[in-house]
Amino acid sequence: MDKLVREIIYSPEYEAYYAGLDSRTKEKYDYVEHIIKTQDVVKKKYVKHLENTELYEVRVSLGSNEYRTILFAVDAASFMQATKILYLNSFLKKDTKQYKREISKAYRLLEKYMED
């Protein structure tokens, strides 16, 4: 078993999205999640900082589909330093305008998380 570097906390919104995925897509999500949990340095292919925000995106590619999960580093200023991360919301990437809506949604979920 690999040593865990990061703990992932799942929002109910993420869990609902994940539950609705087909088994092949879940397999790919699980693969990327394993990398995030067990590797100190994660390539931009899998996790990328979202410009002008304090958020990051998990990047899952499957065929021509690009899935994104917005995350927040709970206990550090950056993802690489974090030992706890929060998966906020996920979506199938369609266009760049969609990002603004999803980022707004992620901030609302983050506020809700911080209140609890």
UniProtKB/TrEMBL annotation:
Annotated source species: Prevotella fusca JCM 17724
Protein name in UniProt: Addiction module toxin RelE
